[in-house]
Every structure is written in C-alpha cells, then in structure tokens.
Design goal:
It is a single chain. The chain has about 425 residues and is of the alpha+beta class. It has 18 helices and nine strands. Helix content is about 45%, strand content about 10%. The strands form three sheets. The chain has a four-stranded antiparallel β-sheet with strand order 4-5-3-6. Strands 7-8-9 form a three-stranded antiparallel β-sheet. A hairpin with a 5-residue loop joins β1 and β2 (about 140-150). The longest helix has 20 residues, at about 310-330. It is globular, with a radius of gyration of 26 Å.
Length: about 425
C-alpha cells in the first residue's frame, strides 16, 4: 500500500489524509498483485464514494503536481514469475516477435471487429481471417468450426509454442496435453463406487475475449500487448454468416448461435484455443478439486467433460454435490449441459469419454461390435461399400479406430487388427 500512497502523493503534490483509505479500497478491489486495466481503474475511481467526498471538500485545492508516466514492462503476478515466457513490453516489440509490421499486427488482431460487418458475399474473402463451417449437433444445437487462414494460424502457433505451452495447467486437466489422453482422464475413476459425469455447454465460445486478455495480463504483459495477443487468439464471427449458412436449421437455435458467436470468443479450430481453454478454466479446476476432496472424491477434466468419483462417503452426497458443482461452474462463467449429467453407481455401466470404467478401462461393447461389423463387411464386400461418410482416406480412418481399441484393450484390438489385415484395398 505504501508505494501506491507515495505515487498518489507525488502526483497530487500533497499527502492527503484520504489517500491511505483510498489505497486500502483499491487493494481490496484489485489485490496487491498484477495490474488492473486502465478502464477498470477509471471505473473504480469514478464509483468510489470516498474519492467523491474528498473532491467535494477539497476539489478547489486538488491539482496535478507531477504527471507520472510508468514505462511498459513485464509485471507478472507472483505465481507467474517462474513462467519461462518471452518478455514483450511494447506493441513494436510484439510486431517484431511475430515478424509482422505494426499495421499487419493491427489487421490480424482486428480489435475494431471490422470482420463482423462483412456482407454475406465477403465472409471468406481476402478481408476475413477465418473459414467457417456450421455443424448441427444432436439435440438441435449448433457448433461453428472457425479455421484460421494460413498467415493467422502461423501467428497463433508461435503464441502457442512459446507462450501458452510454457504456462502450467491444473493437474486435473487431461485434454489437449502431451502424455495425456482419455485413458489418463478415465483411469482415476476405475473401480469406484459411484461416478458422476458432467458436461459443459459451448465450452470454447463461452470463453470470452476479455478472459483471454486477462490471462495474458496475469502473465505480466502490458495492457496494450495483452490486448493484441488476446485479439489474435479470439474471433467474432460475421453476423451475415448465419443468413447464408443458417438456412434449413432451427430458427431459434440459429438466433442463439448468432448471439453466442458474434462476440469475441475462443474459435474452435484455432491451434491456440485448446491451451487457452485449459488455462482459462484453471480457477474452476482449483475450486472443483478442493470441493471434490472435501467430499471424498477425485476430479478430472478432459476438455468439456468432467468426472468425479468416490467411495461410500461420496455416494451419500453425490446428488447435492452435482448441484453445488454446477453452481461453482456458473460462478466461473460456465454452463452445465444438465441433460448429459449422469450419476453411475456400481450396479450400472460406468463410462467416461466412451470408455467403460467399472473394473478396468475398456471400450464400449456397442462401439466394438459396430467397428467389427464394418471391418467384416469390408472383407466381404469391399472397403468402398462401407465408406458411407465419404472419408478421404477410409483406410487411415479405419486404422486409426483399430489403433484406438488396441491402446485401450490389446486383446480386442488384436482381433480387429486380424480382420483389418484381410481387407483388400
């Protein structure tokens, strides 16, 4: 608090008695670590009743004695000081680091959201940084795939390699990480008395541009740099996209999707989005881990799939636990897909991310039987007769599915491999 009061006194030319209480309120609002944005500080000062009262009493005596200009510099929070990320302290330094000109940097960041105003005939033209594909999900929901074009993708990959991958994620996270998979996600829940499965709705688009920019601020980047980094990694889809691509889809669902995707968010298709999603969910993972441990349970997360499991103690409170966990997630800015919530006790099949976890990790019998039938029909009638989804490389597609079963259950995988080897390509 002392440095804040000293700077304010120097700026105003006098150590007013009301400065110390103002500093206490400032630290209570923003904490003693990190730096709030300029907009947040101005909003705090405008709304502070103590400052209003001081201005009413001493407004005619207040003056700026010394304008203080603090140079841009890295100021990470205490937990981020050990992160080995590049120090980028100005917009010019960021442009040099990304090997682009300052003008190109502003164009890729599109902070004024000019691309959202593109007409239907220019959605994927030269001014757009993304290519779009709308998918209709089960249950009537809509998913938008936003694939960055090559130049923007190159910038995002550099940010991913040199910044995001140097920031540690929560130990409960298993999605999109080297050395982790759905197997490591499901393994802690094998043989448990009760398993609770929950699913997040609209995981990527629910993470706003503001949260992404705040993450870069936590890492220590000055506000101007953090804003540009966050803008490069987020996108706001053109509103005209839905009038062209939304034909034939449910009108209400299209309206909801337009409202969701038209604001800056993590685009599903950008290389930076999985890592940023894990990092933005860090606080939620911390709270859910502590909540699970208090209830005698273990918690893991794979992207938008969350799993909790435990023994008799957890089984007694699992219904209440599910409600309170959903409330924690709501406080953290996430929404639970309640129709996908499942409480699975030992008497029923317990499965997570398509894997059975009752006694050991195994593939679902239905999935195994369907794949076996496809392979058998490929042997009998030819591979092309079974390529009903028009995969470009049906052989690689089937080989990948067989390899997945081999990884989860070597014995079953060997049986499928034997059939696969008999197919004539």
């Amino acid at each position: 608090m002392g440095p804040i009061v000293a700077r304010a006194s120097r700026t105003l030319g006098r150590n007013w008695r009301w400065l110390k209480p103002l500093a206490r309120r400032y630290l209570k609002a923003f904490g003693s670590d990190g730096r709030p944005t300029h907009r947040d500080v101005v909003r705090f000062l405008v709304r502070d009743d103590g400052l209003k009262y001081a201005f009413e009493r001493h407004g005619n005596k207040l003056r700026i004695a010394d304008w203080m200009h603090e140079p841009n510099q890295m100021q990470p929070i205490a937990a981020a000081r050990a992160w080995k990320i590049p120090a980028i302290e100005s917009v010019g330094a960021l442009a040099n680091w990304l090997s682009v000109s300052p003008g190109e940097l502003e164009w890729f960041a599109d902070r004024k959201r000019l691309t959202t105003r593109l007409g239907p005939d220019r959605i994927e033209g030269a001014l757009s940084h993304y290519r779009y594909r709308i998918l209709a999900k089960e249950g009537g929901n809509i998913r938008l795939i936003e694939a960055p074009k090559p130049r923007l993708k190159e910038l995002q990959r550099k940010i991913l390699r040199e910044i995001l991958q140097a920031i540690p994620v929560h130990p409960a996270t298993h999605g999109f990480l080297k050395g982790h998979s759905i197997r490591t996600f499901a393994a802690p829940h094998v043989g448990q008395r009760v398993v609770l499965r929950m699913d997040l709705r609209d995981f990527f688009p629910s993470l706003s541009g503001g949260r992404v920019r705040a993450l870069f601020r936590i890492a220590g980047y000055p506000e101007s740099v953090a804003n540009l980094l966050g803008s490069i990694c987020t996108n706001a889809a053109p509103r005209g996209l839905w009038s062209v691509r939304g034909n034939g889809l449910d009108t209400l669902q299209v309206s909801d999707a337009r409202g969701l995707y038209s604001w800056p968010h993590l685009p599903q298709g950008a290389p930076t989005s999985p890592a940023l999603a894990n990092l933005c969910a860090y606080r939620a993972d911390c709270r859910l881990t502590g909540f699970a441990e208090a209830a005698g349970a273990v918690y893991t997360r794979y992207a938008d799939d969350m799993a909790f499991s435990g023994d008799e103690k957890f089984e007694k409170c699992v219904e209440r636990f599910a409600i309170q966990a959903a409330a924690i997630l709501l406080e953290e800015g996430f929404v639970i897909h309640h129709r996908k919530t499942r409480i699975m006790r030992q008497g029923v099949r317990q499965y997570l991310a398509g894997l059975v976890t009752n006694t050991r990790i195994n593939v679902l019998r239905g999935d195994f039987d369907r794949l076996k039938a496809i392979l058998t029909n490929c042997v009998r009638y030819g591979a092309e007769s079974q390529n009903r989804e028009s995969h470009r490389s049906f052989r690689l597609h089937l080989e990948g599915r067989v390899g997945f079963v081999e990884m989860m259950n070597p014995a079953k995988g060997a049986r499928l491999r034997a059939i696969f080897e008999r197919i004539r390509w």
